[in-house]
């Protein structure tokens, strides 16, 4: 059974009609796919099509933790809502233009119509097909977007977020590993992520100073990393607005608004570690690495480091380990450093070392070595970055080899 409701407070329309280019429809369906529920609740595979009085169509999806909405102007005949099945709608729209060149198919107009007596239909390429639908009343209330606290360039935000997203992973035991912490500070937005073996910290400058009342002074909001990474690929506008809900709200929400696309996510309910206490200090030793050596390191990352003077312990933690002296490109001697009491030779997981080198945007990389053999190595673009709190930094913990 199909139920059509109106967003108007006066009369309910007899027919809901949405007319838009097929390219805009498929783009919206692809964007909201990351929030389409796959489990029985709230509505399996459901997407909401809402028309407003201004003629805008809003395509929405909500899986209980992530809500994504796409706004398409001049596509609705008036207020009204339809709840469709995402998979069925996507397959039908693609099947109606099968065999048609993509450029020609994208220029076609798709018309979705529903009334109070019949099932919704889509008209495209001279054919009309019915669409699977659900009762609108079954759809849950969508979360309210927090007020924006920071506006910034999308290109800069995407670049800095991509650098810290290298360190996230799914972890049922330690859920903080799957999140990116958003800290709103007067100097801008600070992004940080860690899986307990590596840590990435990046700073994104904002167009205007963030108000003191909106700043998070002790910790921030822990945003799920995988939805963030997927939505960043879909954003096209020049600027993005970030909203962070109050700390004491339950659930705590974070929103991203960029052009006609918006996302609201429930934060991970876990405490992010205080990474400030493990930051290396400027007086620690550093070793430069060139871009050429960085590239060579990636080519040899599967080659284990050899140390004839030691017996290598077997085990999964050392499988494919890479010596920092060969793959990292630093020029430290392999002889024991009597001043510090240990030999500056460390071993890393190949993929972790490759990720660390990829996060450095400059032509070269500088390694800041720890004071002990078990300490973390800091990767920066320049030595001055060590004392600059706004500079990007990536910490990587080496594998302990006996």
TrEMBL record:
Bias (Basic residues) ranges: 290-315
Predominant localisation class: cytoplasm
Keywords recorded for this protein, A-Z: Cytoplasm, DNA replication, DNA-binding, DNA-directed DNA polymerase, Nucleotidyltransferase, Transferase
Subcellular location: Cytoplasm
Protein family per UniProt: Belongs to the beta sliding clamp family.
Protein name: DNA polymerase III beta sliding clamp central domain-containing protein
Ranges for region Disordered: 278-342
PANTHER family, A to Z: BETA SLIDING CLAMP, DNA POLYMERASE III SUBUNIT BETA
Low complexity bias locations: 316-325
Organism from which the protein derives: Streptomonospora arabica
Keyword Transferase recorded: yes
